[in-house]
């Protein structure tokens, strides 16, 4: 009898938890998760190529960019005044231990990436910089494609 009551309570609790989760009928399709990951990886790959031309298509026109505690403006502002010119001083920009996690919320995706990166600057005073980084991105499905609407990246020295 006690086992029957315990089983009933467990089933009832599981049912309530399932009903409480508003997303139980909205399991993300793996193809949507993969599409979001593809956008993020496309941006990472452009950085590694030291060529961000064409990356505007990955971002919404009014996307907000934050880097290490600073608001950088829209992606176009960031491209024109920060990352674009910066890449011109790099000989190498590589990522390692790259991982991405995506959580879907209808037409919004919230993603975080963890990675290590290495930058080798060009010129006579060439330096090698190694950092541990993390980025959080919010993407929105717009016109059938995923676009980054907000991105925040930060880094610290590798321990």
Note the main attributes of this structure.
single chain; 159 residues; alpha+beta; six-stranded mixed beta sheet; 3 helices; 33% helix; globular; disordered N terminus
Structural description of this entry:
- This protein has helices at about 1-20, 30-50, 75-85; strands at about 60-65, 70-75, 90-105, 110-120, 130-140, 145-155.
- The model is unreliable at about 1-25 (pLDDT under 50).
- The chain has a 6-stranded mixed β-sheet, covered by helices on one side.
- The protein has about 160 residues and is an alpha+beta fold.
- A hairpin with a 6-residue loop joins strand 4 and strand 5 (about 130-140).
- It is built from 3 helices and 6 strands.
Summarize this structure briefly.
With 159 residues, this protein is α+β, with helices and mostly antiparallel strands. It has helices spanning 2-20, 30-49, 75-87, and strands spanning 59-67, 70-74, 90-105, 108-121, 128-142, 145-157.
């Amino acid at each position: 009898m006690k086992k029957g009551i315990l089983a009933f309570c467990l089933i009832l609790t599981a049912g309530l938890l399932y009903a409480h989760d508003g997303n139980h009928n909205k399991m993300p399709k793996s193809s949507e998760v993969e599409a979001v990951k593809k956008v993020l990886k496309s941006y990472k790959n452009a950085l590694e190529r030291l060529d961000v031309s064409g990356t505007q298509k990955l971002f919404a026109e009014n996307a907000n960019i934050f880097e290490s505690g600073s608001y950088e403006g829209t992606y176009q502002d960031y491209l024109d005044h920060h990352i674009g010119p910066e890449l011109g001083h790099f000989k190498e920009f590589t990522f390692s231990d790259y991982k991405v996690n995506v959580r879907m919320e209808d037409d919004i995706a919230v993603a975080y990436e963890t990675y290590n990166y290495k930058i080798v600057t060009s010129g006579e005073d060439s330096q090698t910089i190694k950092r541990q980084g993390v980025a959080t991105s919010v993407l929105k499905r717009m016109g059938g494609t995923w676009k980054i609407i907000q991105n925040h990246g930060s880094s610290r020295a590798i321990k």
